[in-house]
Amino acid sequence: MSTWGVLGLQNSNSPLMEQLIFFHDHSMVILIMITILVGYLMSTLFFNKLINRYLLEGQLLEVIWTVLPAVTLIFIALPSLRLLYLLDEVGSPSLTLKTIGHQWYWSYEYSDFQDVEFDSYMVPTNDLPLDGFRLLDVDNRVVLPYNTQVRLLVTAADVIHSWTVPTLGVKVDGVPGRLNQTSFFMSRPGLFYGQCSEICGANHSFMPIVLESVNMNTFINWINSQ
Fold first, then answer.
1. Are residues 113 and 36 in the same domain?
2. Torsion of CA 31, 36, 40, 42, to 10 degrees
3. Residue 7 forms part of a structural domain
4. DSSP secondary-structure letter at 176?
5. Any stretches that span the bilayer, and where are they (predicted)?
6. Do residues 133 and 25 share a domain?
7. Of 28, 39, 46, 193, which one is least surrounded by beta carbons within 10 A?
8. How many CB atoms lie within 10 A of CB 68?
9. Do 148 and 200 sit in the same domain of this protein?
10. Sheet harboring 142-145: ordered strands across?
């Protein structure tokens, strides 16, 4: 989860989020180069007194300042398109989790197992343990195994919600009457936090997500205990 003073992206817990971070860094390098170049050109224009009274046209210059931005956009667009197709790839999931957004809590169903479903509400501030996170902890966590391809199905029962966990690079809108799908692969164990990222009403800020990544044996024991 993000903490005070962290201005960058959170550490990734999936190959897709790693690729998103790489693309972010790639884009930022290009933006910094453009900013430095334009800033240098503007500063030289402001502070020098050179003029050219005979400059009527500059076709070569116009070709250069048309082609260079086009090439720059290609360098941004190609990795972006590759990433878009990677994010849409579902592959062969080993596990399916169905998520239903409500005002203002989440319901989860483990479709591969019989009668494993529960609601997940935010823990009120007065009931938080000493090591709890205000507005982020829930009474029932999502438990999933790492090193396993997971399919996520997202819908909503009332208004549009959005199931978002930044460390996984997952943001899927839950739309009433529609079933949206994505997949992710967790690389390590841990606790990962997210929130609804569509403004869904008065208590939009109070429907967090807590995902617990565990090994397969712990996950099977947890399923058997439900």
1. no
2. 40
3. no
4. B
5. 20-42, 63-87
6. no
7. 46
8. 12
9. yes
10. 142-145, 208-214, 190-196, 161-165, 170-174
Helix (H, G, I), strand (E, B) or coil at 211: strand
CATH number for the domain harbouring residue 99: 2.60.40.420
Task: Kindly state whether residues 104 and 184 are assigned to the same domain.
Answer: yes
Q: Which residue(s) pair with 117 in the sheet?
A: 109
Residue 25: CB atoms within 10 A of its CB come to 11
Do 31 and 114 sit in the same domain of this protein?
no
Q: How far apart are CA 169 and CA 156, in angstroms?
A: 20
> Taking Cα atoms as reference points, which of 120, 116, 97 lies closest to residue 107?
120
Range of the domain at 73: 15-49+57-88
Closest CA to 149 of 181, 177, 176: 181
Is residue 143 domain-resident? yes
Same domain, 146 and 64: no
User: Which contiguous run of DSSP H or E holds residue 195?
Assistant: strand 190-196
Global pTM value: 0.84
Q: Please list the pLDDT of the chain residue by residue as tens digits (226 residues).
A: 777 888 888 889 999 999 999 999 999 999 999 999 999 999 998 988 888 888 788 888 899 989 999 999 999 999 999 999 998 888 889 999 999 999 999 999 998 998 899 999 999 989 888 888 998 999 999 999 999 999 999 999 999 999 999 999 999 999 999 999 999 999 999 999 999 999 988 989 899 999 999 999 999 999 998 8
What DSSP string runs through 71-122?
HHHHHHHHHHHHHHHHHH-----SEEEEEEEETTEEEEEETTSTT-EEEE-B
120 and 210 belong to one structural domain: yes
Residue 177 belongs to some domain of the structure: yes
